[in-house]
Amino acid sequence: MKYLLLLSCFCFQLVHAQKINFSSAVFQTGDNPQWRIEKLDDKSWKPIDLHDYWEKQGYDNYNGFAWYRIHFMLPSAAKNKAVIKDLLEVFFPGIDDVDITYLNGVEIGRTGRMPEDPKGYKSGGRIKERHYAIASNHAALHYDQDNVLAIRVFDGGGTGGVFGSQQFIRFWDPIDYISMDAYATSFDFKKNAVSKEISFQNSYSGTLKGVLTTTVQWKDSVVKKYNQPIQLPIGKSVVLFNDLPKLDAASVSFVFTESINQQSIAITQEIPYILTPTEKQTPQIHNAKAFGCKPNVPFLLAIAATGVQPMQFEVAGLPKGLTVDVQTGIITGAVANAGTYAIKVTANNRLGKSTQKIDLVIGKDNVIVTPPMGWNSWNCWGLAVSDARVKSSANAMIHSGLANHGWNYMNIDDGWEAEKRTFDGSILANEKFPNMKELGNYLHANGLKFGIYSSPGPTTCGGFLGSYQEEAKDANTYASWGVDYLKYDLCSYRKLYPNQLNLQQLQAPYFKMNDALKASGRNIVYSLCEYGMEDVWKWGHEVGGNVWRTTGDITDTWTSLKTIGFSQEIPASYNSNNYGFGDPDMLIVGYVGWGDNLHLTKLTPSEQYTHISLWSLLSAPLMLGCDLARMDPFTYNLLSNDEVLAIDQDVLGKGPKKIDFSTDVQVWTKDLADGSKAVGIFNLGNQLLEQNIQLKAIGLEGNYAIRDVWRQKNILSTSAVKASIPSHGVLLLNIKKK
Ligand code: GAL
To answer: Does the beta carbon of 553 sit less than 6 angstroms from any atom of ligand 1?
Structure first.
């Protein structure tokens, strides 16, 4: 009885959102600053429906400026009834394309950039919601009287105007003051459990209370659930979950229900799971079985070996001109004559030794013979890259142990260039890079390679200086700094032509820089970046490219990964060790962010296994786009599976074939140099896939030795696999005919 009474009292306190829907507006095409004014006489304006574009309401094909005026009354009773009375929100589900919104003549928000903006027009995003917050005591706002919202809209083309299910103004509810963030820090691994911090931000002026419900689900059943009352003081608070179970691809949801209105916010994440077995302590060598370089240029190959330190190296069969540092395993010098030199590398430590044969493929076109593996600054630091940030990731590349698995390029993307060239036209680095030559030396001394970025246009995509008409000079400057890799990004070159570039116009600047790089006296990997235009995979090699971007930019979402990755069958079919490699863009694992503020990738762990597996099957360049200094155990484990990386680094360098197995399942198969095949079975659906898959159902007749590559375990059957593949995850196999 007592319990019921309490419950009913509690329910009585529930207060529903104080909200006024906008139903109608008046409209005028054109543009006039006076139209924002509250007292304007708009009786002659035409009524317009806020659900649909203006094209559907008699303004066919109209592009350009237009104004909407919405009259509304806000009763003071709404404020009295609101639980928290401080803030109001004006909401639009969509505006096509740019808007500036005024309340009684005063601007309260804008999205996108109007044409008169000094930085130029930029769409605000047609279907991007607008949430404009205003203080409930804002001087422009009148209670119990007429108010006017005037929305100045600019439509850059196509449909236009204010549209969507419902526009409104409402008082904020307590839950609106709270945000929850699960991407600020990674999961941590303990012996038998996984822990995770969730941070809350309370932007209200007092403590808010509620209940946090944590539910762990595995294979569709709940394995753990608990409720925890919590108090959120003003500002940031962090809640730590210490004992999440260690299960492959379990999910955890965190739901915070605020106690006044019982409204909730929720986050669901997949709990990371480790597949790569622990590294062996005996020496293991992980370089690709072939290594390319031009003759008569500086040569640098670092032996990548794991195992207990200290380690010592020996190399038999080194061609004339090369020497190895026995302590570091770094081979340097220059080879005068073209040819293939088989060297035998041995790594020794106190527990044993191991030996591997590597073919040094020296020839004028053999800049690389397997896809480059390394790091690029763009997906983490964006234009905020600096010498310190490059060095910090370089140090982490070495000290984390990743370099011992073959990761070695350290590439600076856009944002390093000074504003002006020197008096003789040479390019300079800006103040964030005090000494490029010293940076190059630093990387090389650690066995790492040095990459840089430019554009054939006058400016780069980030607005920095490009190499237009200074190609030879720039290539020589890069060479003097010790550069080993150039990403050459089309960007503003497109603006030099009024129409879309034809094939010849597109190739011309790439030929030009290729000549300059070839004459520079260094072995510089040439990475074309023109987003796949004109099927670059058909001619990337011809203009001198070693790798070529086949797509637009990737971001850390499943949609982006899936759209880009699973559409690479044709571009990758051109790949080979003596042609070059299609580049479906850089990796989006670890802490990414494209600027100063990084977050943990939004891809689930299963999606990340898919990402690395698919890129390896594609023979794609593997360029990490994360801050290596903040690498969590899951990411390290993901990037240090030598059997997976060996698929990427296979010396044939082929692209895979795709089979659509079912609506949600794709199978990608790649031929490897030793006669075996790598097979990725990808579950693109939203449910766990549990199925016994016969190899003959994916076109593989006969008996095979089957190995689960991520787990590095042989499978007993010779003709089938018992697949248990999480949503968006993969089972990666190596199969060899018996
Ligand atoms: C883009 C390119 C990105 C990055 C950026 C730098 O065009 O696709 O990968 O290099 O420019 O501004």
So the answer is: yes
